[in-house]
Structure formats: C-alpha cells, structure tokens
Amino acid sequence: MGQCAFAPGTTGVDHLLAWSLMIGSAWLVLIALGSFFDRADGKKSEGTMTGEIRTGGFRMGWWVPWLLLSPTLIVLIVFLYLPAYQTFTLSTKLARLGAPKMVDKCLLNFTELFITDPWRLVAYPLVAIAIIYGARFWLKHSEPGTWSRKGADVATVVGMVSVFVALYLMFSPGGGQQVAYRPVYMTTVIISVGIVAFGMIGGLAVAYLAFRKIRGGTLYRTFLIWPYAISPAVAGVLFFMIFDPTAGIFTHTMSTLFGIDVPNYRHNAFMAQSAIILASGWKILGYNILFYLAGLQTVSHDQIEAALIDGASTWQRFVKIVLPALSPITFFLLVTNLTYAFFEVYATIDFMTKGAPAGKTSVAIYEIIRVGVNNGDLGRGAAQSVLLFAAVIAVTLWQFRTSGSRVSYGGS
User: What's the pTM?
Assistant: First the structure.
C-alpha cells in the first residue's frame, strides 16, 4: 500500500480506500484467528467437522468428508474463486482488450467512481449508520401501539432510505477525471426495485388466484410457470416486438381501439425503464408463482376456518394468516429476485433499449459489459464488477439481518 495508495500524487480517496481495505482484511484475519484459537481451546462450534465421525457401525476420519467434497471444491476453485481473484487483480490494472501489456493503476479504477472529497465520502455513510442505530434504539425503547412506536417505525424506514441516499451521494456524478457512476447507480436501483416489486407482488397475486379449485387448474398453473423456462434474451425479443413503435402489438392496439398515439418508448426514460421492468418481471413471474403455489399448500386450513368463523374478512385472513405463513418463501424469493435483477437483465436490456435513452436503462451489469467488452477497457470493467459483487454481498447480508429476523418457520 505504501508504494500504491500512499505514493506521492495520490489523493485522500486513495488513502481512504486503502485504509478500508487494510481494516477489512485485519478484521477477517482476527475472525479466522479467533476461530482457530477457539478450536485449540476445545470450543467446538455446532456442526464442526473435527475428530472422528461415527455413522452407524462405520467410523470415518475428518478427512473423509473433504475427500467426498473434493470434486465440488475443485470446480468452485477453478470456475469461481480463481476467476474472482483474477477479476480483482485486473481491476487494479490499465488493461485494454487485445493489448499485450498491462500497467498498474492501483486503486484508480475504483477512486474514479466516487466523489473526490474524502471527508464527505466518510460523512455520508456515518450519518446513515447513525440514523439506523438511532431508529433501532428508539424502536427498542418504545411501547407497541403508542405514538412513539409509530415514530420509531417511520424512523426505521428513513434509516433504510438513508443508506440508498448516502450511496447516491458517494458516487461520482462525472466531470474531470471522474466516471459518471451516480446515474448508473440510480438506474440500477430503480429498475431492480421495480423488477423485484412487480415480480413478487404479481407472482403472489397470480398464485393466490390460481391456487383456487378450478376446472383444469393443474394445466392452467403449468402454463403460468412456463415463462420462466425462456431466456432473458427471448423475453427481450418478445417485448421488443410487443412495444415496437411501428409494428408492435401494444402500439397498434392502443391506436386502433382507444385512439392513443403511444410514443416511442426508447426515446422516453420513464417508458423505457417501465418496459424493462415489465419484461424482466414477466420473465421471473413464473419462478415466483411456482414457489408461492408450493407455499400456499402449507397454510393451515384450520386457522383460516377459525378466522372465518370469527368474522375475519378475506383481506384480514390474507394479511394475518397467509402472509406470515409465506414469510420463509418470501424471504428466499427476495434474495433470488434481487440477484436476478442485478445480474440477469443484460440480455433483455440489450435487445430492447441498448441502454437508451441517454443511459437511463444502463444498469450496473450492462455498464460493466459495455465498458469492459464493447469499449475494451478491461480494468475499469473489472473494477465495476468487483463493486457490484460487493454490493450484492452487502445487500444480502442486510436482508438476513433485517428481513430474516422477521421470518417465522412453522411453529418455531
């Protein structure tokens, strides 16, 4: 780091990222050392594979599970961990597609994505963290049903929003030597949230309706799940043809039946983003329907009948009984839908808008491929992919700490 991030000519942002990397690495090392010394002191965590394993009349050493796992571990190392390490290494280089040599850029590929003021770069996340912990403290010390609890609930929502606002302010709006990554972040948030909301709410609504006893219900449910079998590229082609301004079915129907002249969606940011959300949400809809149909079969009929006898309305039964019973599946789908929204929308965007208009549909994964492959700047593309990877890990951990604590599994 002394020859890289702290070299003469580096900026405060370089120093800040270097300190963050060193502190994060030291934290991981301390966790590993703590685990090692706990095992040396005889403190074994539940499920730890140490010593001798007895299964029936057979005895296996600690090395047998690792031997059985070795094919999977080899595949993971070759096709996942090694490419991930090479991507991180490439993110510190000035590398052009087809060029024989690479030049070290240290953290420049990362620092050009953020604002140039290190003090504001530190202040924004600290303010967001303070709001989150303040709201949590307020929530813990307020009584249910009081105005204080309602205010704490509002503060909790504000704390969640403050994280997105802090990240928005941390990314660079462009200008000078900086990359305009703030618009990419905002577009990614809008389209990802739209896809997850449309896919999960629509999937639950359709599954709830399809779960009713109707003639030919099995065949009908199978047709509902089929869209998930197609690829994102095919979904992009289908909706490209539907919304095509000259020969699309949607524009023709709106003009013929209602006399509405629909503008070209590729020239309007709101319509372009809505089209991407609709196409991608429709693609993941069958996946959500499948899991919600399976989850609805586990809802207790006795509780529903008891609520019906007590005079609960359909909406009350749905909110008080069905939704809590579906919370494990909803939590699982929230993680998988977000992963899909982050990584699987490239082909749909490429066929429908190619990032237009003016980059308003260029999400993070599309920007990575545009910069790294189309423009041939492998170093910058790798840096943005590392950033996206870190964002997905952070969002997943955040979901497990917030939404995961509210999940109820059966009678537990």
Answer: 0.88
